[in-house]
Amino acid sequence: MNLVSYEFVACQEWKKGVLILSEFAGAAQSLGAGAILVNPWNITEVAASIGQALNMTCEEREKRHRHNFVHVTTHTAQQWAETFVSELNDTVIEAQQRIRQVPPPLPIGDAIKHYLQSNNRLLILGFNATLTESVNNPGRRGGDQIKEMDLKLHPELKEPLAALCSDPKTTIVVLSGSGRHVLDDNFGKYNMWLAAENGMFLRFTKGEWMTTMPEHLNLEWVESVRHVFEYFTDRTPRSHFDPRETLLVWNYKYSDVEFGRLQARDMLQHLWTGPISNASVDVVQGSRSVEVRAVGVTKGAAIDRILGEIVHSKSICTPIDFVLCIGHFLGKDEDLFSFFEPELPSDPTGAPRSKVADALEVPDALKIPGERKPPSKLPTSKSGSKSSHNKTQRPVSNAEKKTNNHVSGSGRKSPPENMSWHVLDLKGENYFSCAVGRTRTNARYVLGSSEEVVFFLKELAGASFTGLP
């Protein structure tokens, strides 16, 4: 019976037929919003429902059908399989992080040395707890909470960032989960790229915002989840709710520990049984936060689109031979650290590791001799990681497919189809991934706090200016 109701909805794209469905059928949970639910043992109710369907206005028929048709066409067997496999992969990654050794501290001297020896550098920086001032002060919890909610760039980073941005060999991307206005307020005067809401919005500071959202991204769940978050914010003292355009975050860091956890557990039950029961979303739990975002939205999944936009804007004209990636990211967003790994060893569990390089469009005359042709793009899981069983596979950027998704004003033209070369020419010793304040991480190195990030960027800016490590 469940399959028949789905087939009926799929076949009624033009006629907009009305679905009358037993309230005892399993499909009633997913198709009940657009169908007329009846008790099949109540003959009078069934007859009245048939009359209601026959006399229903065209507008209501179309509205009901559209709601169910979207559900049927998006919740496919393929989507279910990808979600299932992705959750299995997430479980493996979490298990690996529990037994993984703590990475060593970032070797500042080596990083600066390789930075100076490179010709085209890419710096990807997080924002919160990376470029902000440390606010963990037990003696002033109230003041710390207000300060943390109002994110501000660390004052000692203004000159180093300006110096690094002025280097023509260096491209800086601030990739953050924060909203667009937060990044504009803090970085608007620097010559860098800003990627807001985990890369869903992108702009060069001298240009306009554009969207890099995947096609068919469904955000209908946002408003209903917002109401749940507002309800629990009112019920939980000192918690706060951070609404954004493509994701929602509820933070209870400054609430009572035990009460906050109980409220978070209660919130998750409300979400799973209500607003997101049939929505394609991920619920990401931080140490003291709950975040709801669309499936597949991670920093690692967004970085190939971001690189594609930067390349097409002519900001990068030669292969990148040095990458520095620093941030305090949620576990789900640490696929960004694996994205740039030139060569990844096999894990002890035998699970495949991520490996990605991008492809850029340039004239045939500028092609790099002896380059390999990039094969077709690998499938992407819910977490945004790209599996590779072989060291020579290099997926191609999909940025050229996104020309219809840009906000008006981006003004980017599609490149000619007969141009191609690799964006990355990255060796292992020229890649430095660094987690800030996290010991269970996929990054190669760690830094203890944002203060250590400030010290490192000061040293890097000084060396960039003098040319001496």
What order do the helices and strands come in, and which of them pair?
Layout: H1 2-11, E1 20-22, H2 28-31, E2 36-38, H3 43-54, H4 58-74, H5 77-99, H6 108-117, E3 121-125, H7 141-149, H8 158-165, E4 170-175, H9 180-187, E5 193-196, E6 201-204, E7 210-211, H10 222-235, E8 240-243, E9 247-251, H11 257-273, E10 281-285, E11 289-294, H12 299-312, E12 322-327, H13 335-339, E13 359-360, E14 421-422, E15 431-436, E16 445-447, H14 450-466
Parallel strand pairs: 1-2, 3-4, 3-12, 4-5, 12-15, 15-16
Antiparallel strand pairs: 5-6, 6-7, 8-9, 9-11, 10-11, 13-14
Explain what this protein looks like in three dimensions:
With 469 residues, the protein is of the alpha/beta class. The chain is built from 14 helices and 16 strands. The chain has an eight-stranded mixed β-sheet, with helices on both faces. The protein has a four-stranded antiparallel β-sheet with strand order 8-9-11-10, with helices on one face. α8 crosses α14 and α10 (222-235) packs antiparallel against α11 (257-273).
